[in-house]
Every structure is written in C-alpha cells, then in structure tokens.
C-alpha cells in the first residue's frame, strides 16, 4: 500500500466578522473545504459559507477556559494532514496577529506537513474602519503598536513608549483588565487625559464605538458592560466630541483627573 502524501493545512484569516470582508481566496477555500477547524471568534455568517460536504470542528477558546489547548490543536491539524485530509484552519482576524498562527505553522513544518497562510483583515483594521477611527493620521499619529491586554507579568512590562503624542496603541483582549491597563499606562507616564476608544463587536451589526479618556477607561467598560470581542484604542486619533465633553465636564466640576480616578 502506497504511503499517503500529507495534505495541505490552510491557515485562513476570517477577518473580524463581516463575511463581505473575506478575501476571494478565503471564500473559495471555505466553500470547497471538506474539513474546517475554526475558532469561536469566526462568525456564524462566515461558517454558513461552507458547503454541505464540510465537517466543522470547533476549537473555541474563551478567557480562562479553552475547549482544546493550543498543543492539542496543533496535533489535530497535523494528524488530519498526515492522513491525507486537507484542512482549513479558520481563524478570527488575521492568523499572524494574536492568532497563534506562528505556532501552528511551526508544528506543521516540524511534521513535514505543507502549510499555507491566507491573510485576513485584523480586528483592529476592521473595527477602526467601521468606527471611522484612523489608526494613523498625518496630524495625530505616525506610529501604531498592537499589544495583548491579557498577558502574564502585565505590571512588569514597560508601556511608556507605546502611547502618547504622535502614537496610537491598540490593545487586544483587554476588556477584563481594562482598569489595570489604564493604571499601568498612567504609571508609565501616559497622560490620564489621553483619548480612548473601545470598539466592541467590530464590523458586526451590533458593533459599539465608545469614547472617553484614559482615566475613565475601567469605569466606562464596567458601566457600559462591554463584552469581548472588543478592542481598546489609546491615542489622539480616538478623540471626538464625547471625549472632549468628558474632559470639559470634569473641569467644570473642578475635579482633576486624579480625583476622578480615586
């Protein structure tokens, strides 16, 4: 019996949720797939593009609870591919921006499995576009940084160079730690009065764009009951009338930013 040649694993970026933002190649791979291994952030509208022949395998992850550890996902992709079964690994956003795509590529390569990466629109790009919030602006920002808000050793990191004049900071997975993130940025020298936007459910019908100032970030996330998926954008590009009104209201009451945070 002839050996079975390994099939290809396609790591496909599903974008932030709107199926019309998929690439043409991504749509073709989804429609033709026999097996799709997908994240929980992939929208139902995108999964509905799969044909009747497609088997859907969910490896959804949620904060503090993973249906399947990353090492097991890597092994699953390799096992299918070595059995000659082509796999579409469908990932929210872009596979290489906080999608652990690099780990899955490494696992496939180590096992001798062909792998191809199909980029997708990242959550930051998609959500900012819908909110009409430019991440760079000739008069406000010439640099953008992407960071993960849920990470070990948050208080040990130096974020002083990531936000401030002329810079934009985009924080993924930061809803649960929003108050700690604000405290950390302020402790590292970022102005408490810098504008902040929270973009919830980017590109989807129920998207919300909330604006305030850094000192109010944790409180706003709590009072607005913000849920993941959501992004936090810190920088002058996030300024709008609401953020200015918040600052003016505090000033009118004679309260400083530090007093509002206490």
Automatic annotation (TrEMBL):
GO terms, molecular function: uroporphyrin-III C-methyltransferase activity
Cross-referenced Pfam families: TP_methylase
Superkingdom of source: Bacteria
Biological process according to GO: methylation; siroheme biosynthetic process
SUPFAM superfamilies: Tetrapyrrole methylase (SSF53790)
Gene3D superfamilies: Cobalt-precorrin-4 Transmethylase, Domain 1, Methyltransferase, Cobalt-precorrin-4 Transmethylase, Domain 2
InterPro entries in the record: 4pyrrol_Mease, 4pyrrol_Methylase_sf, 4pyrrole_Mease_sub1, 4pyrrole_Mease_sub2, CobA/CysG_C, Siro_Cobalamin_biosynth, Uropor_MeTrfase_CS
Domain Tetrapyrrole methylase: 8-217
Catalytic activity, EC: 2.1.1.107
Record flagged with keyword S-adenosyl-L-methionine: yes
Alphabetic keyword roster: Methyltransferase, Porphyrin biosynthesis, S-adenosyl-L-methionine, Transferase
Enzyme type, top EC level: transferase
Pathway named in the protein's UniProt entry: Porphyrin-containing compound metabolism; siroheme biosynthesis; precorrin-2 from uroporphyrinogen III: step 1/1
Family to which the UniProt record says this protein belongs: Belongs to the precorrin methyltransferase family.
Record's protein name: uroporphyrinogen-III C-methyltransferase
Source organism of the structure: Sphingobium yanoikuyae ATCC 51230
Lineage: Bacteria, Pseudomonadati, Pseudomonadota, Alphaproteobacteria, Sphingomonadales
């Amino acid at each position: 019996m002839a050996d079975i040649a390994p099939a290809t694993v396609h790591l496909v970026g599903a974008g932030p949720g709107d199926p019309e933002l998929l690439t043409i190649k991504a749509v073709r791979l989804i429609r033709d797939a026999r097996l799709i291994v997908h994240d929980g952030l992939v929208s139902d509208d995108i999964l509905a593009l799969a044909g009747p022949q497609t088997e859907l395998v969910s490896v959804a992850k949620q904060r503090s609870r993973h249906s399947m550890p990353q090492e097991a996902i890597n092994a699953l992709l390799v096992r299918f591919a070595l059995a000659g079964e082509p796999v579409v690994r469908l990932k929210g956003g872009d596979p290489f921006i906080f999608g652990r795509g690099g780990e899955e590529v490494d696992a496939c390569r180590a096992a001798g499995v062909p792998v191809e990466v199909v980029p997708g629109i990242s959550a930051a790009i998609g959500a900012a576009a819908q909110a009409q919030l430019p991440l760079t602006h000739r008069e406000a920002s010439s640099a953008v940084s992407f960071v993960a808000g849920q990470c070990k050793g948050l208080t040990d990191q130096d974020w002083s160079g990531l936000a401030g004049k002329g810079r934009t900071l985009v924080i993924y997975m930061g809803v649960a730690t929003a108050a700690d993130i604000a405290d950390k940025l302020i402790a590292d020298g970022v102005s408490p009065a810098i504008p902040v936007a929270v973009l919830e459910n980017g590109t989807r019908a129920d998207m919300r764009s909330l604006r305030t100032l850094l000192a109010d970030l944790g409180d706003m996330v709590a009072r607005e009951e913000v849920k993941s998926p959501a992004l936090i954008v810190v920088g002058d590009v996030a300024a709008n009338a609401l953020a200015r009104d918040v600052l003016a209201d505090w000033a009118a009451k004679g309260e400083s930013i530090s007093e509002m945070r206490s």
